[in-house]
Write a structure and sequence with these properties.
Number of helices: 2
Shape: globular
CATH class: Alpha Beta
Strand content: 25-35%
Order of helices and strands: EEEHEHEE
Strand order of the largest sheet: 1-2-3-6-4-5
Radius of gyration: 14 Å
CATH topology: 60s Ribosomal Protein L30, Chain: A
Mean pLDDT: 93
Number of domains: 1
Helix content: 25-40%
Number of strands: 6
Amino acid sequence: MNQYLQPPGWRNPKGYSNGIKARGDFVFVGGMVGWDKDEKFPEGFVAQARQALKNIADVLVEGGARPEHVTRMTWYVRDMDEYLAARKDLAGPYREVMGAHFPAMALVEVRRLVEPQARLEIEATAVVP
């Protein structure tokens, strides 16, 4: 049976789930944008990436997982040039949340995201040992 994952204090999602724990071992984190629990976005690509990664970590905790259990991530960015320009500055926030763990990743440029202020969206899959 699947378990829906909802970090405490977060607003209930509309039409999707933040994450699901399946078969006891797998945690699937839905696409996380860079807003906080009150759905407010910080300014800038790097700040939004940091918040999106923190959001992923919060959902992982609800499923009994941690960032080092993430096996796969997909990043969706609205502007590849913005991502490329921010790569150096992303290292700090990434390590702050994910540590020195680098799962299999894909990076995709998309035309738009559901939330107009979102610069990126990240989804993750974790396997809990």
